[in-house]
Amino acid sequence: MIRNAWHFYYALRLVFKVVCGRPSHHLTGSYI
Question: What is the pTM assigned to this prediction?
Answer without folding.
Answer: 0.47
